[in-house]
Design goal:
Layout (H helix, E strand, L loop, with lengths): L1 E4 L6 H11 L3 E4 L11 H6 L7 E4 L2 E4 L1 H12 L7 H17 L1 H13 L7 H24 L10 H9 L12 H11 L2 H11 L2
Parallel strand pairs: 1-2
Antiparallel strand pairs: 1-3, 3-4
This protein binds glutathione.
């Protein structure tokens, strides 16, 4: 049995989306980040970092959301392109997102709207935005050349980057029309909608 640890209100959102794309059956341990469940010896044994998501696939334990999605895609023979160049591009975009956008988008949205006003820090938001703008420009340029990030169809690259941009769904992306259209294309997929409903409780 595959077990997915991590609430949809965390980066486990991307794991749940991938599991939905692949039509996998799984047990869901809906642990919130920093919750008591993630502080137990049992959980720390699975992930000494104490973070979600983590999966346990018939005894094979793996953390890091991007790695998990590559593993699941490869294991089930879907969504990671067969062509080595397209597969390398999928990895490139996933690593790029982790470096250029993952924390930046969370910081920006937290410190402009998600946190209670008293906890928002304008300098954190502005530092994040100054990194987000050039990264969005890069995505816009790539999506002007191709509908999808790696190869000619939706892949783990699109899933990993678009899922990490969940919070960007609330941003005004008018300056980046290709990015906006691609983000919508990704999030309109049935598996994406189901993952989103899990997160938003709808
Ligand atoms: N690079 C990791 C990041 C995992 C991560 O930071 N998860 C957050 C929730 S979205 C967490 O569990 N945080 C707990 C903490 O900061 O102690 C991944 O992509 O899986």
């Amino acid at each position: 049995m595959l077990t997915i640890y991590g609430s949809a209100k965390s980066r486990a959102l991307r794991t749940l989306w991938m599991a939905g794309e692949l039509g996998l059956e799984y047990q869901h341990k809906d642990y919130l980040p920093r919750s008591a469940e993630t502080k137990t010896a049992e959980f720390r044994n699975l992930n000494p970092n104490g973070r979600v998501p983590v999966i346990d696939d018939h005894g094979f334990v793996l953390s890091e959301s991007m790695a998990i999605n590559f593993y699941l895609a490869n294991k089930h023979g879907k969504l990671n392109p067969r062509d080595p160049k397209a597969a390398a591009l999928a990895l490139q975009w996933s690593l790029w997102e982790t470096d250029r956008l993952d924390r930046q988008v969370v910081n920006y949205v937290n410190h402009t709207s998600a946190l209670p006003p008293a906890e928002r820090k304008a300098d954190v938001a502005s530092a994040a935005w100054s990194e987000i703008v050039p990264a969005f420009d890069v995505l816009e340029g790539a999506l002007a050349k191709s509908q999808w990030l790696a190869g000619d169809e939706f892949s783990v690259a699109d899933l990993n980057v678009a899922s990490a941009l969940y919070r960007a769904l609330t941003l005004d992306l008018g300056k980046w029309p290709k990015l906006q259209a691609w983000l919508n294309r990704c999030w309109e997929r049935p598996a994406a909608k189901r993952a989103r409903a899990l997160r938003e409780g709808t």
